[in-house]
Input
Amino acid sequence: MQYSEIMVRYGELSTKGKNRKNFIDRLGYNVRQALHEFPNLKIAAHRDRMHIQLNGEDSEKVMARLGQVFGIQNFSPSVKVERDVKKVQAMAIEMMKEKYHPGLTFKINTRRSDHKFKYDTNAMNDLLGGTILQAFDDIHVKMKDPDVTLRCEVRPDGIFLSYGKINGAGGLPVGTAGKAMLMLSGGIDSPVAGYLAMKRGVAIEMVHFFSPPYTSEQALNKAKQLTAKLAPYVGTIKFIQVPFTEIQEKIKHEVPEGYLMTIQRRFMLRLAEKIAKKRKGLAIFNGEALGQVASQTLESMAAINDVTTMPVLRPVLSMDKNEIIEIAQKIDTFDLSIQPFEDCCTVFAPPAPKTKPRIDRARQYEERLDVDGLIQRALDGIQITEINSSDEFMNANQESFAELL
Amino acid sequence: MIYFDNSATTKMDPSVLQTYDAVCQNIWGNSSSLHSWGEKAFNLLEQSRKQIADLMNCYPDEIYFTSGGTESDNWAIKGTAMEKRPYGKHIITSSVEHAAVMNSMKHLEKMGFDVTYLPVDDEGRVSPEDVRKAIRKDTILVSVMAINNEIGTIQPIEEIAEILNDHPKIHFHVDSVQAIGKGVEKLIRNPRVDFLAFSGHKFHAPRGTGFMYKKRGRMIQPLVDGGGQEKNLRGGTENLPAIAGMAKALRLLMDDEDQKVAHQRAIKNRIYQHISQFDKVHIFSKNDETFAPHILCFTIDGVRGESIVHAFEKYDIYISTTSACSSKKGDIAGTLAAMKVPEKIATSAVRISLDEHNTLEEADEFNRVFDKLYEEFKMINS
Output
């Protein structure tokens, strides 16, 4: 079916009172960002709905992208027909053919934004319903919960027919809930946490700790690639890489083995907080799930969280591993996450980390270190990249092989 | 030389050979090695996979490299049988499959599997209705080729897919060795198809390489166990020079595919129109969209296929007695037998198979030689 337009229904926006206009503007911006590859689209974000005129662009591809934009409840591709009842009837039959099976139930749902049209809502419902009843055998009208609802919208510039609603990503438009830092390791959980943060409207920036030569270039590229996987929901994401080698080496040297992990995590959190403050972030997100590993017991979280008063938000806190994996697969980060490169969390992982570290001990061990100096030097070495959904990091040698292939 | 035996094998593309050569010399690390030399090979391997996936319009993790069409067929079939044995032992296939499929089925029968071989009509085509009727509760696999290698019949894959939509657990394998680059993408990329087998040397890539498409989520057992390659499903250090060559060959093949298919149809048509005028000629491959653009199978009554092949060979024209894989055994073609063509006629069958590099001039030359030979054969068949 050659669709001419996609009608987008907003999600929770409708309930946001005075902020509504901001939400809609932001959603319009996000949709434009997400669909920037389709130059012929005409996007108009109105108060109650958004209309995307396809102008010949591939509706399947556009809808695949649209399905990733947060703040959209659902959308319907529709066909534009001239304001000629005969033509509308013919198209209605065409469209029902695609759904028809014996015993099908349907209803017609007409809306008129042009009240000058010669048939009113009821008359249109009758005209179209009657045509369909005649055209198909064993088809029935049903008002409550029919198999197919054929929507007919009468507008000054034409009549738009659609059936079927495609579920959108839900949530709130990214950016409407402020900005925060996500601690991105490269594992399964943190990208999911990032996804969930964005789903509720938070614009995130990635904070990634890397420790060359203990961690490889590939581990860094993997984190960047994961960022690219999350970029379609917003357009672009800032990736902040923080050198962590010196801190890890010093900790390893000075701190008893049982507290290596706790102290490392305290440093990471301190750095994330400093970066957030500098970049006007309001909170820190991470992928911690309660009880999953030693650093994720309540005792550990308390000992680590001790270094900051900034909110540390953990969207996957109460999820089982399987539930997290399910989302990771849905957002296509799973296969990337399980690629086996050493990252900063695994390289210095002690064989038996304390699952119940004590805050006073952690503080006491840290006194052996030049905390401020270490933090400052790490901050000085930060590099920031802006990452796009089409960026490729895993195949760094791309150019050299293009000519072979 | 006129080479009309492209369904047997194709000439390697010179630029593919260049890639093969360059990879042998410059990127010979083991892609499983951790160091950057291995990393380089790994990157090329994955870029090759991605290129093939993009051309096939699927995900890179759905492409598995194998040693060729035969292994891919064996793997899809036996791998499914081993994986799904607890759920059932019934398999459905057609009676006109390539030996790689047919003999895998025979092997499984010996191991206690129950195989239904569907009959074909007089064009060598399976009836989707027969597939529907053959499905049982314990059916685990349906395997039907896309394009028949002996006479070029295009099988009703889309209709079978439609039927299998009601049986989501059954694996659907389509041997597509003859179908790649032949204008039937819609058919082999039907969303219900779970497995596809391809062979590199049928499209100007090196021998000893091929690939299998396995839809995400479909599980099969490995046939070749080893060191974890191909996501632990196909062991053995990857044949990287051939794989990179194949990725390139596939790109070249699919570039301008429509035009190439039309070109092959035009050549087929020219020969078809010519030889169909003769009384003693019987043509099995129809000259329309229901048959492959590149295969033309015919007989000259009373002359053995082998004699026809050698007669053309004297004029430096290379054709084949139906499938090259069975032509040396002197058996009558499996497909023709399944079509219930009398043995006397079937033993006369020969096959012309084209590629995009053949020309209309070659067709004219073939037709001239054909006329000459037809006259000569009158000595024995009139």
